[in-house]
Amino acid sequence: MRFHDKLQLLRKERSFSQEDLAERLSVSRQAISKWESGSALPEIEKLVQLSDIFGVTLDSLMKDGPLQYGRSEHTSERSERTSDRSESTSNPPPMWHRPRWGYEYKSKRTLFGLPLVHVSFRTDKPRAKGIIAIGFIAQGLLSIGLVSIGLLSLGLLSLGLFALGLFSLGLLFSVGTIAVGAVAIGAIAIGIVTLGAVAIGMFSTGALAVASHIAIGHHAYGHIAIGREVAEGARTFLCTSIRDNGMFIVGADEVRAAITEEFPNLWSGIVRWMMAFVR
User: Would strands 110-111 and 114-115 be described as parallel, antiparallel, or unpaired?
Assistant: First the structure.
């Protein structure tokens, strides 16, 4: 068995992806791929690191023949290995691991080169990356984590097309205590269309609403400002009362006429959104 075969076998035994191993060695994933294909060899420094990571002697790693196990950063796991490599290949390790520092699960099925499900709550490997990713740091189409990045993202800090979290940044839709997005809803909301206690955007609704175009709030500041107590802008409306459902009583016809006059090409969906708060 040659070096590149041994490297691939050892990596798969540990359920490391090429990216995982690359991160440990501070090299690119492409470098690992070249080593495993036999088109390149690592530097001596990286060979020593590989020897330590997998718990094999440097001599047996480089020379053709069986592997010999020595000292390793994973000494507690080495005792569970068998010297018969063919047996370990035919009976791969279970997908669930319980290392001293946490849990990890990675599904065998993949899509676009990513596992369908990756769960990682390991302090040495905090990032989960998959179609569905759950972990301290989660990256996937659906991601759940303390820090999550994905198409649909939920977490303490969320980044995605649709983001939900304490602090959320959504390219399209964002909900959070502090929310930033095209459409943002939160205690503090910043975006194009915003709804919050403090709302800042082009079209804002909130207790304090600041907008470049239309603002609706108890304190409203915008080109068109509709306020309960304060309204400041080029066109202002002070409401006479507020209904139990939160609607501002200001004269919907006058507000609609002002919006049409000031922004004649405004998308009707935005107009309907803003007019939903006034009567």
Answer: antiparallel
Phi, psi (deg, nearest 5) at residue 266: -70, 140
Quick one: CA dihedral 116, 171, 136, 175, positive or negative? negative
| CB of 214 closer than 8 Å to CB of 258 | no
Same domain, 268 and 176: yes
User: How many CB atoms are closer than 10 A to CB 242?
Assistant: 15
Whole-structure pTM value:
0.60
146 found inside a domain: no
Domain of residue 75, CATH code: 1.10.260.40
3-state secondary structure of 254: helix
Instruction: Report the distance separating Cα 86 and Cα 252, nearest Å.
Output: 78
In 3-state terms, what secondary structure has residue 263? Answer: coil
Domain that holds residue 244: 172-275
What are 198-255's pLDDT values in tens digits?
Answer: 999 999 999 999 999 999 999 999 999 999 889 999 999 988 665 544 556 677 888 9
CB 163 within 8 A of CB 169: yes
> End-to-end alpha-carbon separation of the chain, Å?
80
Q: Which helix (H) or strand (E) element contains residue 217?
A: strand 127-221
